[in-house]
Structures are given as structure tokens and as C-alpha cells.
Amino acid sequence: MFKIQGTVKVINPTQVISDRFSKREFVIETQDTYPQLVQFQATQDKCGLLDQFQVGEFVDVSFNLRGREWTSPQGEVKYFNTVEAWRIERVGQGTGIPAGGPSPMSLGADPIPVAQSESALESANNESDDLPF
Question: How far, in whole angstroms, is CA 59 from its chain's centroid?
Fold first, then answer.
């Protein structure tokens, strides 16, 4: 599993390849010193994840890298890579729930109420500190 952040540059419509396979491609532009344009593919039920995003939004994409070998009818062997997205989230909204809905990995314990966390912080600041720095 890999993750990358970037701005959505392109969202293509869903392509129905066969009655058992559909895909939707999209491109993000990274925010690196030398920005990269990376094309991703969402397949099957993940195609719908892109419906809630627009070009220009800053997103976090979780993906898997897939590779396969193919032999042409002439006997020539070629290799292909696919960057397959399986989760897309808006960056900076702080919901912690992926665009595709909650999953066991994104659900955590209930947050600590603000008043309780502030009093815990105050008591921690009032305790003597025996650290040498």
C-alpha cells in the first residue's frame, strides 16, 4: 500500500470494458519541487469514489502498484504497470473518514471532550519536571 498527495488535474468518465470489468482513470499533480503528473485507475465499485471530487481539489490517494507480463501473438514479452487507487480523501478537512465511507481502519475511539483535555494539560504543566533539559 502506498499514499500520495496532490491536486486533482483530470477525472475521466467510467469506462465499461466488459460486463464484469469497469475502470475510471484520474490524474493528480504532486506538490514536489518537480511536480509529477500521476495517472491512477479506480476499478469496479471504486469508480464511484470520484463522483464527489472536482478538478483542483487537494487529495490524499491510497493505492496499490500492480504489474503484469503479456506475450504478444508474435511472441514478444512486454510488462505493464497499473497504479490502482482504492481510497481517496480530501486533505485538510479533518474528518478522518475516507471518501468511500467509514472502514474498520478509519473508525477510532470517541474524542476526549475539550474541557477534560484542557484540565489534563493544566495538571501536566503544574507537575514538577525532573528532566535535565
Answer: 7
